[in-house]
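User: I've been trying to design a sequence by hand for this structure and keep getting stuck. Would you show me what you'd pick, starting by listing the structure so we're on the same page?

Assistant: Good idea, let's start from the same input. This is the structure you sent:
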């Protein structure tokens, strides 16, 4: 849960609101592009973790699965 909220969600916020992380308007698109690569890597890590598994933690759905779903829609 900590990884999803403190890493993935934080990086998504930078991706979707890059203008909040620079004072140069022409740099915002560069920030978003860099974030896309970072986020892709994070989702690849999660995808690898879910390989051959139905849920992130244990054998039943947990709040982690709902949180991940929320981040992907």
């Amino acid at each position: 849960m900590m990884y999803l909220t403190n890493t993935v969600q934080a990086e998504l916020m930078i991706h979707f609101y890059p203008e909040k992380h620079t004072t140069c308007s022409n740099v915002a698109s560069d920030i978003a592009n860099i974030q896309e690569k970072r986020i892709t890597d994070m989702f690849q890590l999660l995808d690898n973790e879910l390989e051959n598994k139905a849920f992130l933690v244990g054998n039943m759905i947990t709040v982690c699965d709902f949180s991940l779903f929320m981040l992907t829609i």
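That's my pick for every position. To get oriented when you compare it with your attempt: The chain has a mean pLDDT of 94. The first helix runs from residue 2 to 16.
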